[in-house]
Predict the structure.
Amino acid sequence: MPRQFIGFVLLSMTLLGSSTSMADTSAWQALQEGGRVILMRHALAPGVGDPDNFERGNCSTQRNLSDQGRAQAVAIGDAFRARNVPIDAVYSSHWCGVRETAELMALGDVQTVDWLDSFFIASERYAREQRTREARQQILDWQGPGNLLLVTHQVNINALVGGGVSSGDMLVVQPQDGELTVIGRLTDMS
């Protein structure tokens, strides 16, 4: 392999790492100022979607957090505390892994709400428009001095801002003039 190519690959990796680090830094700074909304996908839970025998109120029928996912949620909460990020309210969907993620972060009392519930499985798709509309309105109405933490599902985040995140990752959103502007991304804090 030519040395120039190896050098190019190493430089590219360094620059990509730097841009991610800079994006994370600006996102943390925005959160320290408050008044933002955090759209977070639940921590690691093995599998994709909900099992065929899924029941909303029965955790034994749902994808739940793995040990790694539980550790990830705790580490994310620790990262918020270490940076003195003010959290005024924490909401999650009713899904067990999502609620457990929010609880393990230990950033405040967790309120479960329908408007953050998933609509990935066929039996929930009827609610996509209503849940997205309600979540969007909650975000646009946010005016706390601190931040609003919304722990939810990839499909919900994608419907709100047109892009998804990996498990345990977050988008920092600025509600402004009727729009949701993504101002940063926080990734890989496990």
